[in-house]
Amino acid sequence: MSKEAFMKKLERALVKLPVAERQDILEDFHEHFHVGMQEGKDEAEIAAALGSPNQIAKELLATYYLDRVGEESNVGNVFRAVWAVIGLGFFNLVVVLGPFIAVLGCIVGGWTVGVAFIVSPILVLLNVIIYPDTFRLFDLFASIGLTGVGLFISIGMFYATRFIVKLFIRYLSYNVKLVKGGLKHA
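Predicted structure:
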């Protein structure tokens, strides 16, 4: 593959990156070709040594999104990082998507229980409005007790969610290094 074809494929594959980031990466690869040609290699040898532009782009996108999650871990960044890591290979579909769905289910379930417990007095009052003859003081006090439990669950879920997201991002980073072949034994 010629340098021009390699660079065009790489640029197309990196279109999701910001322009400045993309230009920086492309300059680095221009430099790889320049150095390789000074060493007496032709463009096809250099391109073959660098690897597939699409695979390079997938690895760079995964690294970029993982870095963004490290800076600001919001829901959008986490999902982009997960999909970028899954895009590295079919193996990641099972290794990343399975645990992600399980972790997401636990987080959503915990938050749902906490919020449901917190709003339980409102539901009891709505029940009294709709069916006034079903009011029992026990239901009201039990729902107030559930509100307290819901607050504790929600506070716990806040910290658990932060911890789990950080842990999962570390898992994604480990997975990217594993796919890239960058794990070195000390």
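Summary: The chain has a mean pLDDT of 85.
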